[in-house]
Amino acid sequence: MKDSLIHLINQANSWLKNKTMALEPKGYIPRLQAQKLLLPDWDPFWLVLVGPRQAGKTTLAKHLSQELIRQKRFETLVYLNCDLLEIREWLTSPLFIQEILDEFQLQHPIILIDEVQRLESPGLILKACADLQLPIKMMATGSSQLELKSKVQEYLTGRHLEALVLPLSYQEIGAVEPSQLIFGCYPALVKATEKNILLRQIYDDYISKDIIEILKVGKPDTMQKLISLIAHSSGQLVNYNQLATDCSVSKRGPNSSHLQNA
Question: What is the pLDDT of residues 108-135, one digit of tens each?
Fold first, then answer.
């Protein structure tokens, strides 16, 4: 392993040196599905947590890891973030597992691959890791269900447990506040004070990363206006003429009377 790669892993896994450090972030809100996901039946399988961005997949995965370590079923967690280019370039072969075991002197770790859909061939990599049948626990998270299902699911039949992680339910939160009806129940929003700013960031991430990048939308401005029309026309037909008019005005200026197709 390259020194730069080892440094990245150490930065993201400070508990490898400090054994007493907690894995899960402070203020973790217990999820209803956690106990079922901790059943020993699933230890040999890949646990794949899928769902929308910011729904708490990584936090839940770290909580599950903390519990598995507390129960002494596994010894520690190795967290690999595929948002980092160097990590993605390294995860091209199942040999990375043996490199982890050798470099950090581990025998029964939990391997957590975060944002696995960003790998070039995630399904093949996860399948190859499962086929090694090593005494490790394997977890993965993916923010884009559309992309993840097409890249992963067909390769992992009989080798994985998939769990859908959604924003918090009222049962998990424990109390209903008026702000939750406006801003929703994403974990970060429930605890945040500047909810407007955070919600805008989540919305922008959905537009730029999930819709535009994955669906290859060529006109992002038009897509933004379509989403706004849908939001304001709940339960009704979307007015295409209004969408075309809005797009025409945005392109030609507020005084233009020329109608262009979106």
Answer: 999 999 999 888 888 899 999 999 999 9
SS3 147: helix
| Cβ atoms within 10 Å of 257's Cβ, excluding its own | 8
Backbone region of residue 137 per phi and psi (left: phi > 0; alpha: psi in -120 to 50; beta: other values)? beta
**137 CB-near residues (< 8 Å, 6+ apart):** 43, 47, 65, 68, 73, 74, 108, 109, 110, 111
68-101 pLDDT, tens digit per residue, is 999 999 999 999 999 999 999 999 999 999 999 9
What pLDDT is recorded for position 191? 81
Residue 211 pLDDT > 70: no
Residue 175 CA neighbour count, 13 Å, CB half: 5
